[in-house]
Amino acid sequence: MDFELIKCKDAPSYLNRRDTVFADLREPEQYMEYHLPGAYSCPYERMAEWEGRLPRTKKVILYCEHGNLSLMAAKRLARHGYHVAAMIGGVECFKIKNSIDSVK
User: Fold this and answer.
1) pTM passes above 0.85
2) Helices then strands, each counted (H, E), the chain
3) Using the 8-state DSSP alphabet, how is residue 48 labeled?
4) In what order do the strands lie in the sheet with 20-24?
5) N or C: which end of the chain has fewer CB within 10 A?
6) Which residues, at least 6 apart from 51, have a Cβ–Cβ distance to it below 8 Å?
7) What are the φ and ψ backbone dihedral angles of 99, each rounded to 5 degrees?
8) 46: pLDDT confidence band, cut at 50, 70 and 90?
């Protein structure tokens, strides 16, 4: 595998780091409803438009609704030389995990 996998429970440790960016692969409407802090809106369907604008000097963590699209996008970006990771479980897992943690 040419890219990393990150568990949704580990994603908060990457937030607000200077060496990492998050890319939300969902549709813009979904992004507007909820997205990880600081994440860029990068709809999977328009990947050809935005992939060249991602920083090559940072780790790019991709996420989608449940994790499937981020795996496909990570594979493609890794082939183009990006340091990339896919978040397992997607944003839904992240929201569930963080709501559970905030109750504790």
Assistant:
1) yes
2) 4, 5
3) H
4) 4-7, 83-88, 59-63, 20-24, 40-41
5) C
6) 76, 77, 80
7) -70, -35
8) very high
Average pLDDT for residues 74-101, to the nearest whole number?
87
**For residue 24, what is the enclosing H or E element?**
strand 20-24
Reported residue count of the chain is: 104
pLDDT digit string, tens, across residues 18-41: 999 999 999 999 999 999 999 999
What tokens appear for 12 in the block?
């908060």
Tokens of 3: 């890219």
Residue 77, both tokens:
């970006």
16: helix, strand or coil: coil
Structure tokens at 14: 């990457």
